[in-house]
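Thread: Glycosyl transferase family 8, structure

OP (GT): Posting the sequence first so everyone is looking at the same thing. Length is 249 residues per the record. Can we get the structure tokens written out before standup tomorrow? I want them in the notebook alongside the other entries.
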Amino acid sequence: MRGLEKSYKELRVLRGVDLDVARGSIFALLGSNGAGKTTVVRILSTLLKADAGSARVNGFDVATQGADVRESISLTGQFAAVDEILTGRENLVMVARLRHLKNTGAIADDLLSRFSLTEAGARRVGTYSGGMRRRLDIAMSLIGDPPVIFLDEPTTGLDPQARIEVWQAVRKLAEGGTTVLLTTQYLDEAEQLADRIAILHEGRIIVDGTLDELKRLLPPAKVEYVEKQPTLEDVFLALVGTATKGEQR
Ligand SMILES: Nc1ncnc2c1ncn2[C@@H]1O[C@H](COP(=O)(O)OP(=O)(O)OP(=O)(O)O)[C@@H](O)[C@H]1O
Ligand SMILES: [Mg+2]
């Protein structure tokens, strides 16, 4: 992205956004409510035109090569886009057919198992919990193995176990070479997942770096001796247990 600008009437949301996301990396875009994260994602996925500046996705210009960009990406929007009347498996089969793939049933079954949805696969999505919908939504976006994936606040509203499951899924994607650009308001999510982190504030990227680089922006921590207290999340996870015992970083 170079110099991306976007206004809604007088509201100047993006005022020159410059960002590079390395192929095969996980990049987290942080920002408060209304900072413009979804606007960036919508421009990169060709749903919205920028007023100025340029952006390339998988080598294709979003303004002039929209069809090539769309073939290279998949987008999991901020709000789950699943069909409630169909079952989870039917949702997956539908997307696989829309992508003109063969063996749609096998693709659906594989994704159901990767996202711990096999048992729920034959149930209507209307009966799913929020976390199950979110996992199904992400599973749908993986069909066809697009090289670039946008995840707009993938874990907002999920319980701690479901968040960890989504994180594991995202890590597996990156290990497989997929480029992931995710937006989040959860700072721990960025710490857990991202190779690089950028903060969008008042229309511009105010910092961009690895976690270590960002931490070095503040004075080094003083050494203090305090009793280590478990966090509420530790307590919650110890009592409830993690759904899939995962490799946390
Ligand atoms: N279609 C639109 N018309 C007018 N204003 C809009 C439109 N879409 C977004 N905005 C405004 O642009 C700003 C940025 O919105 P955007 O959705 O990109 O923020 P965000 O960083 O994704 O926020 P959140 O964390 O709440 O999802 C907000 O002030 C929003 O009200
Ligand atoms: Mg948003």
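GT: Both are above now. Quick notes for whoever picks this up: Residues 8, 11, 13, 31, 33-39, 78, 185 surround adenosine-5'-triphosphate (ligand 1) (CB under 6 Å). The chain has one domain: 2-240.
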